[in-house]
Amino acid sequence: xxxxxxxxxxxxxxxxxxxxxxxxxxxxxxxxxxxxxxxxxxxxxxxxxxxxxxxxxxxxxxxxxxxxxxxxxxxxxxxxxxxxxxxxxxxxxxxxxxxxxxxxxxxxxxxxxxxxxxxxxxxxxxxxxxxxxxxxxxxxxxxxxxxxxxxxxxxxxxxxxxxxxxxxxxxxxxxxxxxxxxxxxxxxxxxxxxxxxxxxxxxxxxxxxxxxxxxxxxxxxxxxxxxxxxxxxxxxxxxxxxxxxxxxxxxxxxxxxxxxxxxxxxxxxxxxxxxxxxxxxxxxxxxxxxxxxxxxxxxxxxxxxxxxxxxxxxxxxxxxxxxxxxxxxxxxx
Length: 333
Description:
The chain contains 16 helices and eight strands. By secondary structure, the chain is an alpha/beta fold. Helix 4 links the parallel strand 4 and strand 5.
């Protein structure tokens, strides 16, 4: 059995631990809260995040990050993107020098505008052959219930991508490989912003025509930015782009869509934060993606307007009115 570590015992970290265990690995799950780790080890469930889901016996939880990392061939990072750098500063000294560090996070860091793979490189000194990402239409509860799903494992070193593919290929989880780390990360981060916009439309009572229009224009905006940064446009048509976008925008299980619905229903951002422990990455990353688009010279009205709603500068109805009032032009412009 291959030893792997998962840093983050929330819903996605726990669900991906199940994938890794089902693929035949020995999994150590690091949790921020010691009581959660103790409960997982005693009951084989993470009742706080995935109640009723039985965890495989090859998953063990610990609050000790050094213990979690010891001997791991691959370390999967699954914490909120905006706290990742601070976490990694603490964890980096204990990560095995030969381990591959894999981001399962979907965000862009505030201030630096760094993607998570860039944060890993800066804080660990790891080269491209030791940095990878996993991204795709992977809603945590469905993955934990072992419903069939697919995703993309991306690393600039194709041999490493294939090795990671084998580590997480289970009966229910089908990973594909890619060398386009940039495209996978941008698709994963931007779909959260589009999910917020779709959620707002749903919260305002609009139907499928509106949501389909928002999804499509959101994909066009994502592709504009990705191509300007030299990502492969085909990545945005695949699982890490369109696939993830469809899942996030169409499912009530999506945190970002749910967050957007609440904004559409009139709640403030702070009221939504106060009502849940789950993190909606789009609410944090929309300003980063807006700034990244501005720096790149790319028109990004969805990121701009969603950022303004999250910041309380616009209401959801005002955002939708502005979308409709924009100048008409050729679709491919």
